[in-house]
Model the fold of this input.
Amino acid sequence: MTFSYPTRQKELQKLVQKLAISDLSRINWQLLDLALTHPTASSQGNYQQLEFVGDAVVRLAASELLFETYPDCPVGEFAAIRSLLVSDRTLAEIANSYGFDRYLIISSSAASDKVGAESRLADAFEAVLAALYLSTNNLQLIRPWLDSHFQPRAAQILSDPARQNYKAALQEWTQGQYKILPEYIVKETGRIHGGEDRFTAEVWLRGELLGEGKGRSIKAAEQAAAQAAFNQVTIKN
Done:
């Protein structure tokens, strides 16, 4: 087969080795190369179709793990945990731990877009999962290494009474206690576009400041503020 440049296969082999996949003969290298080609690098030969398949693959991998590990868990809990495991944030974190950005063929302008980095890594990660799945038509090349990332995260989510959705948890608490909703005030406090502290949120209830948080987006800042508030009110009660 022909790669985009002479050293491409060696680079992909390094990534596969990081994933602790020993049987290289089963991998469809052409698909893996495609999975790590951003649309800005090629309008036709890119990861978009594989990403579509990978979205289903990662959900299947997470579902199998949860079914095997927590056989008595209600279906509703399965859905809540899985949604967090397959979120862009989680997938980008896992992809980043393997240095996916080093293997992604992408235009310089897109690579400099820090705001889109998370979704870009998550998309590439899903595409890689699709390439590995389609190489064998099963999860044998995926679960041995992906489980090690999903298992501790699933356990952490189960131990979290808010299921990491602190806005919803805080809202449920305030409605139960006072029959009213908390109010959020968000200000843009950072000058760097996409910076971790670009927005600062405050959450108020009955004229009292319950918590404050920062984030790169309004949503992230509100979640951080809600987490601080939720932790505070649950400790008091």
